[in-house]
Amino acid sequence: MIRRILSISFLIAWQFAFGQGADPKVDSLLNVLNNAKDIEKVDILIELSDIKIYEDEGLAYAMQACDLANRLKDSKAQADALNALGKVYYAQYQEEKALDCFIKSLSLSEKVQDLNLMGKNLRSIGQAYYAIDSLDKFKLYTNKALELARETKDRLLEADALVDMGTLQINKGNTDSAFILLNQALAIRLEEKAMLDVAHSYNKLGLLYDEVGETSKAIECFHNEIEIKQSQGDFGGLYLAHYNLGRVHYRQGNYQLALEQFQNSLVIAERLNHHYYIAIACNEIGMVYENLSQSVLSVDDNKVLFEKALEYHERALNLFMQEENLAMAARSLNNIANTNSRLAINSLVAKYGEAWEDSLYKVPSGEILHTFSKAIDYYNKALDIFERLDNEIEIAKVNINIGSHYNWVRNWTQAQSFIDKGLVIARKLKSQQDISNALFALAETHFRRGNLQLAERYLLEGVSIAEEQDLKPDLRYYYNKLSVVYEHLKDMNKALVYFKKSTQIKDQLFSEKSQKAITEMQTKYETEKKEQEIKLLSNEKALLHSENQRQRLIIFITIGGLLVILAFAGLLVNMIRQKQRANKILEEKNALISHQKQEITDSIRYASRIQKAILPSETLLSSTLKEHFVLFLPRDIVSGDFYWFTVKDQKMVLVAADCTGHGVPGAFMSMLGVSFLYEIVNKEGIMQPAQILNKLRDLVKVTLSQTGKLNEQKDGMDISLSMLDLENMRLEWAGAYNPLIIVRNGEFIEFKADKMPVAIHINDTNPFTNHEIDLQSGDSFYMFSDGFPDQFGGEYGKKFMTKKLKELFVEINHLSMAEQKEALLNAHLQWRGDEYEQIDDIVIFGVRV
Description:
Layout: H1 8-18, H2 24-35, H3 38-51, H4 56-72, H5 75-91, H6 95-111, H7 115-131, H8 135-151, H9 155-171, H10 175-192, H11 195-211, H12 215-232, H13 235-251, H14 255-272, H15 275-292, H16 299-322, H17 326-352, H18 365-389, H19 392-408, H20 412-429, H21 432-448, H22 452-469, H23 472-488, H24 492-505, H25 512-547, H26 552-614, H27 618-624, E1 627-633, E2 641-648, E3 651-659, H28 663-683, H29 689-703, E4 717-725, E5 730-736, E6 740-744, E7 747-751, E8 771-774, E9 780-784, E10 792-793, E11 798-799, H30 802-811, H31 817-832, E12 842-848
Antiparallel strand pairs: 1-12, 2-3, 3-4, 4-5, 5-8, 6-7, 6-9, 9-12, 10-11
Helix pairs in contact: 1-13, 2-3, 3-4, 3-5, 4-5, 5-6, 5-7, 6-7, 7-8, 7-9, 8-9, 9-10, 10-11, 11-12, 12-13, 13-14, 14-15, 15-16, 15-17, 16-17, 17-18, 17-19, 18-19, 19-20, 19-21, 20-21, 21-22, 21-23, 22-23, 23-24, 24-25, 28-29
């Protein structure tokens, strides 16, 4: 039977979906149950069993539904109740009982010709067979479900069956086939606009992309998942999406981004008051703080980070113990041990300096043992629990950790024994990360014992795994240790190569210290090379001397002449070196400036990725708006203009906004704007455009402490905001400086905005005006910032102007929305030409109804 080892992510998804504790919906259903008719009672009991599917109550409700359906002798009700009972058994790991229920339900659903329930049962039977390792029957029933879905045009069942088949391919290692099946399912779910199912598909694809090392695609999938779950108010799913995205960033060594995602998860878990998931988030945050230290040089700063990590790990441990979850409590013990280990190393660095490892024998072994004793104690506690639980992968991790610590205290036999145990288990389970950790620990053991060739062998094997898996934090340590090993082997060329690789991969992209270390390594390499050349010259000279004694006089004269020449050459070399030193200082300063500029640019580029991630994706827009375009052209890398979109109660809110400034200051304001709009529309449920702008103005004033005093900053935003009701062909709109243009029957209609911003203003006590507009089929409407009309260009270097933009909207209205976007972009580029730079951010949001 397949052992069902569920990931933390999967458990979180299930528990959030069904384990919310006291539920007002349950109370409501129980109240209705008392007065319901017999058949209605069966339906209510089935719904209750679904809500409580992981609890004993769920089983009781499903059994009551079966008993009542049997008493009523209603075949349809019996089929529904048996299906519900099967789902409860399956969720509670009683697969054989679940299978029996699904088969009986299938028979009854065939009898009453309930095609929908037949499809569900076929799929469920397949899943149950998969769980008991009967893969042939799994494929048989899943294919039957797929055939029935296609025959009855049940598109969502078809997508579910494709996901099941994709999951099988993942577990068999056929990732190409899995991608095809999962993408087919995604396409169907997008077409059906089943947004939570779409989010589930993005989750599956994100996990698969992460597994095969396509990190950027994994991140994109998780961002799409987050966006959908935010718009749908699925907080439980949102927790999981942030968690998965955090794990990807963490494995990449992007600790700041990982911290942001895990903190998002923690906020959601605390809002829902779920102790288990609070603990999971604390666990991850603790590990991030622990690893953030590797880019900090100060011992005191490192200590603060380690103590912060310890605080989160201890909170996680206490919560896991309250939940009586021994496996997770043991993981927390292991994490606490890791953090105490780093605190121990930090204290030795503080006392003996950063090179304390290289002078290991100068530090008394008793002191080292005492310093690491707390860490080893926690490791042993964790190991004891994992051995009782027979959790092999965690046993491997802890054995490797304990072995590493015996390296510090110079007990090589114990070190190798523990590490070998961990490596054997890790290889058996094909856990590449743990294999990598074990190989590094073994390399340390052999290096400290002087077995340099063995150390090199283990390090090179580990590098191969770490490079294949893109384990950047591991690679940093592997490259650094290989540099040290090759230095001891007197292979200065390789030592330099690996030291440079190690330096390049550090979180700290540039520092004087790292540059100095590289220079010293380069000098050491060149000195070694020159010494070898001098030695070779000396040997040749001795050989010539022994062959012909008569030439001694000539040699002495030659040497004397050479000495005179060398003296002059020395003076010349000294002058050249002084010039070279001056040039080198200048080059270093230029390099420093260049690196600092690159670092700032890279940071801004990363900010751009974050800004783009919070803007609506094309996937979300296309799934709701059939014809639309967004022309978004930041002047700099990041933008002060932004657009926003959400759907609530079948109505759409669309925004095109221009924040004060552009570049980084404008981007900060834009992120505030997006955050406030989400709060106002999605959380508070305000849908009228004028009310949204009134509330947004209040939030901007309070957040930026705007009081109207003289010389006070008046940062804010100009905005055009619509609420679109396609069902009733109605558009409500309000604007702050920025207008709305509707093109109808070859003419434009302009709705002028209020002459005040979303910020402090002399008229800020006046409410914004709400416009209600009846739309006609074929109408196109446009919202935009002032960036496009204010652009200088043309023959006389003048502004494009709003009047010309309105005429352009009419001129291009016969084109598709995608072609309109291209036409607007071309018009902008032609107007600018080669002479004029873009002067402001640009956003235009166009929609055809």
